[in-house]
Amino acid sequence: MNAPHDISMKNEDVLRFELEVFKREHRDLDEAIQALVEKGTADQLTIRRLKKQKLRLKDKIAQIEDRLLPDIIA
Prior knowledge:
The chain is an all-alpha fold. The protein has two helices and no strands.
């Protein structure tokens, strides 16, 4: 899929859909990390990579939320 990565070019419906997908992915990564930590079988490099991926998703989520809900200066 050749969708643009620039959120300024996407309409609100697409952004809302992507927001839900990214939130779900973020939640899934959180659960996966927690399971690996509890199980104790994952190496630290794998956990660190998953956490970085989770942070990238968090940044994308914040960008989309800012786009959908801009600050209103009164």
